[in-house]
């Protein structure tokens, strides 16, 4: 019976041999292409995520208090500072008043004073509108053309854990350095603490203290 079978087609036999010999290579190449595409996709996703993380850097300052000899006394993150730590708040408020009220003929330094003032203010708080109104009617750059004002903070007293009374003296001089007037002021500041979230804020307001409200009057 085997002798009666038609002989195999040599072309079909060659095609079958080709498929058997190289078919596995084709499948392997296809698999490697899929692996390559998958690897490239993972690399793109990883790179994109790394770029996203690089834009989400969160800097948290760590504050160390030292004594007169430079020995570390206390340390901690800003969120651990409570309103009861009045020394930190008083120092910050003293700098705030000095920056707000000082007038210097050096425009660069004057701008730094203003920047430090607004570093402790938030847009929606009443204190910001009050200080905006003051600067609109009393440009320090214009006043600096004829006089300067130096600030001496006399006393800062805590009225509560969020409200402080600040007394200061302003010494006004003409551009020749002659003193032309001395005035005493009293201000009431209501403050809040918020952890700073970016480097720019940390540089000007490292503990995240903001003046929510601020009123001041001249004293007789």
UniProtKB/TrEMBL annotation:
Main subcellular localisation: membrane
Membrane-topology annotation of the record: Single-pass membrane protein
Cellular-component GO terms for this entry: plasma membrane
Residue ranges annotated for the Bacterial virulence protein VirB8 domain, each copy included: 14-217
Pfam families assigned: VirB8
Keyword terms: Membrane, Plasmid, Transmembrane, Transmembrane helix
UniProt-recorded name of the protein: Conjugal transfer protein TrbF
Membrane-spanning parts: 31-52
Subcellular location: Cell membrane
């Amino acid at each position: 019976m085997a002798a009666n079978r038609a002989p195999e087609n040599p072309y079909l036999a060659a095609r079958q041999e080709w498929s058997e010999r190289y078919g596995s290579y084709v499948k392997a190449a296809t698999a490697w292409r899929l692996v390559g595409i998958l690897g490239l996709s993972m690399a793109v996703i990883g790179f994109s995520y790394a770029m996203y993380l690089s834009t989400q850097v969160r800097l948290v300052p760590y504050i160390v208090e030292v004594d007169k000899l430079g020995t570390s006394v206390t340390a901690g993150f800003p969120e651990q500072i409570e309103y009861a730590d009045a020394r930190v708040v008083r120092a910050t408020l003293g700098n705030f008043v000095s920056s707000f009220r000082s007038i210097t003929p050096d425009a660069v330094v004057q701008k730094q004073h203003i920047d430090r003032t607004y570093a402790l203010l938030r847009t929606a708080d009443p204190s910001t509108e009050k200080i905006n109104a003051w600067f609109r009617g009393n440009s320090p750059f214009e006043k600096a053309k004829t006089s300067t004002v130096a600030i001496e903070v006399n006393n800062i007293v805590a009225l509560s854990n969020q409200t402080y009374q600040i007394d200061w003296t302003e010494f006004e001089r003409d551009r020749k350095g002659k003193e032309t007037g001395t005035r005493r002021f009293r201000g009431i500041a209501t403050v809040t603490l918020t952890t700073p979230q970016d480097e720019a804020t940390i540089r000007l307001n490292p503990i995240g203290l903001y003046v929510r409200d601020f009123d001041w009057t001249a004293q007789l």
